[in-house]
Amino acid sequence: MSIDPILVKSSFAAVEPHGTEVTAWFYQHLFEQHPDVRVLFAEHLDDQQDRLFAALGALVEHLEDTDTLVGILTDLGRRHAGYGALPEHFPAVGVSLLATLRHFAGDAWSPQAEAAWAAVYGVVADTMGRALVAAGPAGADG
């Protein structure tokens, strides 16, 4: 399925009022399913939760502005290289992201919304992954 901006935006509108409860649930799910990635994150996740929620909002806001979106995702990929992230981490993150959105979207979630978000995450993982690999393990600041 291709990206359906209407489904992505309407389902995120249902998730957004839950704020950082969304990102707390995401990290809990990710770490329960993939405890090996926990070491890539700070012990306290408050700032990280805020940044993730802001990044999700920016993703949805710029969904139809390809140049801006690619710029945001490229920058995120470079930064994640410096954190020790690897391309093989992206599938686990995608599973946890979809599970989180499904959990919070309520009636706004459907198989079509899930497919649209999976398509969005495919672009996210591909764009960030290419930037991450290009940046190497030192990341943009190294």
TrEMBL record:
<feature type="domain" description="Globin">
    <location>
        <begin position="1"/>
        <end position="133"/>
    </location>
</feature>
<comment type="similarity">
    <text>Belongs to the globin family.</text>
</comment>
<keyword id="KW-0479">Metal-binding</keyword>
<keyword id="KW-0408">Iron</keyword>
<dbReference type="InterPro" id="IPR012292">
    <property type="entry name" value="Globin/Proto"/>
</dbReference>
<keyword id="KW-0349">Heme</keyword>
<dbReference type="InterPro" id="IPR009050">
    <property type="entry name" value="Globin-like_sf"/>
</dbReference>
<keyword id="KW-0561">Oxygen transport</keyword>
<dbReference type="InterPro" id="IPR000971">
    <property type="entry name" value="Globin"/>
</dbReference>
<dbReference type="Pfam" id="PF00042">
    <property type="entry name" value="Globin"/>
</dbReference>
<protein>
    <recommendedName>
        <fullName>Globin domain-containing protein</fullName>
    </recommendedName>
</protein>
<keyword id="KW-0813">Transport</keyword>
